[in-house]
Amino acid sequence: MKNIILIAPPGAGKGTAAKQLVDELNMVHISVGDLLRAEVKSGSELGKSLNEKMQTGKLVEDSLIFEIMRKRFAEPDTKNGIILDGFPRNTVQAEELDKMDTTIDAVIYLDVDRKVLEDRIVGRIVCPDCGMGYNTNSTEMMPKVENTCDKCGATLIKRKDDTKEIFDSRYDTYMEETYPVLEYYKNKGILYNIDSTNKDHTFNEILKIIESTGPMA
Ligand code: AMP
Questions:
Q1: Can you give the pLDDT at residue 217?
Q2: CB of residue 93 inside a 6 A radius of ligand 1
Q3: Residue 170 falls in the annotated catalytic set
Q4: Which of 57, 67, 93, 126 is 20 to 30 A away from residue 40, measured at CA?
Q5: Would you state the torsion angle of the CA atoms of residues 99, 102, 108, 111, taken in this order, to the nearest 10 degrees?
Q6: What is the residue-averaged pLDDT of the chain?
Q7: How many CA atoms lie within 13 A of 191 on its CB side?
């Protein structure tokens, strides 16, 4: 059982890599963005205020994220090994994670050039049912049938925050708030960097890193 964190700028492929890991190693994918979007979809008052914040590309308040994460960590499936996607996103969250009852084996940084990311984000479409990601700007990531999920057949959707303007804001937020988290884990000796321009290379490197941290108990 391994617990890993994926850290990356917007569009670097955290979600895609996490889905591949779920299929290959049966790990549990915890995407904070997906948990927040589920709350928005529920139409609750909390969801409405979250939506406003998320549409600007800024981070949601730490206290709320801690509440959501504590609840999620309390569920039994998290004992099978987790992939944290989108948490921690600043150093305060990293410190708080240290206080939670979850040991992290590796923090994997997916590094991609800013211009490549912008093209990916603007072309990104996702499956609302199984979470699989696709991209209309990349031949290797287009769905086989237009607008249809290869895995489950659902109609693909575009996330509201996948625009050039929101990308710029999210990237700036990432550089200011999330990038320093890498230093935090580097100092702990559990940070690994991967050039994530290519999807298959990224996945193979992630598997190698997980193996290098010891046997899957
Ligand atoms: P994502 O799907 O991971 O790109 O997250 C979408 C949006 O949700 C972000 O732009 C933030 O507004 C919010 N969000 C996700 N994770 C966090 C977090 N750990 N802390 C604060 N806000 C978050």
A1: 64
A2: yes
A3: yes
A4: 93
A5: -50
A6: 93
A7: 16
Question: In ligand 1, which atom is closest to the CA atom of 53?
Answer: 12
Tokens matching residue 137: 């700007």
Cα separations (Å) of 57 from 51, 88, 119?
10, 16, 17
Instruction: Give the mean pLDDT of 191-196.
Output: 97
pTM (predicted TM-score): 0.86
The four Cα atoms 18, 24, 27, 28 give a dihedral, to 10 degrees, of 50
Query: Is 189 exposed, middle or buried, given 0-12, 13-18 or 19+ CB atoms closer than 10 A?
Result: exposed
Q: Using CA positions, which residue lies closest to atom 3 of ligand 1?
A: 33
Report the distance separating Cα 133 and Cα 141, nearest Å: 8
Whole-number Cα distances in Å, 214 to 2, 106, 210: 9, 11, 7
What residue's CA is closest to ligand 1, atom 6?
33
14 is catalytic: yes
**11 vs 209, residue with greater confidence:** 209
Give the whole-angstrom CA distance, residue 50 versus residue 58: 10
Question: Taking 90 as the threshold, does the pLDDT of residue 70 lie above it?
Answer: yes
From 14, 19, 37, 120, the catalytic residue: 14
